[in-house]
Amino acid sequence: MWLERLRRRLAKPKTSVQLCLLGVSAGLIAAVLIILFRLTIMFFQSLFLEKPDDFTTLPTLERVLLPVGAALLIALFAALTGFKHYRLGIPFVIHRIKKHYGQMPLYNTVNQFVGGALALISGFSVGREGPSVHMGATGASLLADKLHLPHNAMRTLTGCGVAAGIAASFNTPLAAVIFVMEVVLREYKVHIFVPIMLAAVTGALATQFVFGDASELALITMNPLSGWHYPFLILFGMALGAVAYAFNQNLMLIIRTFKPLSMFPRLLLAGLIAGLIAYMVPHAMGSGMSAITIAIESPDDVQFLTTILIAKLLATLFAIGLGIPGGIIGPVIGLGVLMGTLMAFFAQFISPGVDIAGTYSMLGMAGLLAATLHAPLAALTTVMELTSSPEIIVPAMLVISTAYVTALQFFGNRSIFMQQLDFQGLEYQISPATEALQKVGVMEEMDEHFKLLYSDDKEQIKASLDAIDSQTPLIVHDDENGYRLAEYDLSLMSDQNSNIKYVSLAGLSSQATLADAFDLLKDKRSGAVYIYNLLDNQQIMGLLRWDQIRHILTIRNSLL
């Protein structure tokens, strides 16, 4: 009984204690999965590495063979679980949230866990946030599915899982909230903001409890910049926008070029390229976080940093472009830090004697993130959260704005996630009407005052219509016609005769939203659907008419 009350409560597009508690639960489930994922990587890396993600101490042969062997294992596991489940990472999560209320397939997530762990253990240039987001979304989706919650609540909880995944990956709960709103859900609504915020905090606290609150980016030393740097920062932002465009274009070029290859040779090629880069530039191996340590230790070695930047760029493009499971945000952060450190070498002449390498590295990260992902606000929040330095806000806003506008206006750059979705043929765009209706469960708006008659006898139906008032619907059922709405046809009535007209009714489960009802009725712009109990399809819970949906769209849409 309490579960039924919970489901009815969650059908409303409003913030509630119940939704907040479920958001915390989703964040905790996501954090547990991500902690397990990270511990798996750390355990296996500890067997052959002196320090996590530092592959430079490995013998040359092992360094070369490691990514090749991992690529073969990833391909083998994908083959055993089925190639059709091999759509992974943040783009796939965006698609599932937009078109399927965040319901995540389990086999797909198993591929992400195993494949992502193998890729990160073996030194591929991919980030851990892709698997983290995927697993966080799946954990939240499974919780909502287990409780048979309305799909509008499932959508919100999946967003909670994504926020927890980002927060757990980078220890940035506020940036995680903004990322979900700006990139994944692509909307700002108060009733989903609070549970997502609580989930992000839960994910961050849980991972801090296990791994501590230290971050690779916390090692960077920040110093304020004088106003003389601002013209140079504009040029820096323009350069970052151009690089972001080139990065996205080349990544999509690799994806399109190697599409004809089947999964096995593609992943093997990715392993061979990673092995070749590992042989020539071992510092380019690992996630993007490994590049931060290099930038901190060698800020003045321009040749060394340039070599790593080029190698890291190639390693990232080919790893992600050829289908290695992993995230793109981590490598982009590493590339941005390297670019910023290189730019600081030239900017130091503006402020001689002042260490500005750390400040420029953070600005490079923010600008490249904003232009590559089309997430300027998330990038700005990330910098603010990681540095805890108010002095960086104005320079960061300047670099981010310039990079974003340059990439968008001058190069026509689009979010790399949207480009990947278009290439895979995965839908992510929905109409404003559908988006508004997805926020309301059918249980919130259905008419529960009706009469149900299991008969097709016309006289009995007439007697039932005469016995009820004109505002009470009569639903009749028989084996031949199923459920129908019976009512007098007022246009054909006379004093001597009264005709009955029937309206065929399609059924929707109690988990459905108004968007599902809208899809069933939008062609005729009339009619109704009946709502049945998800756990017992013989139990009719209510009736929903087209007029009710039209009223919500025309009168109450602003409330959603």
TrEMBL record:
Keywords (A to Z) from UniProt: Chloride, Chloride channel, Ion channel, Ion transport, Membrane, Transmembrane, Transmembrane helix, Transport
Keyword field contains Transmembrane helix: yes
Location in or out of the cell: Membrane
Pfam families documented for this protein: Voltage_CLC (PF00654)
Main location: membrane
Stretches that traverse the bilayer: 21-44, 64-83, 104-126, 156-180, 192-210, 230-247, 267-296, 302-322, 329-350, 356-380, 392-411
Entry keyword annotation includes Membrane: yes
Signal peptide: none
Molecular function terms from GO: chloride channel activity
PANTHER family attached to this UniProt entry: CHLORIDE CHANNEL PROTEIN CLC-E (PTHR43427:SF6)
Protein name: Chloride channel protein
Species: Pseudoalteromonas lipolytica
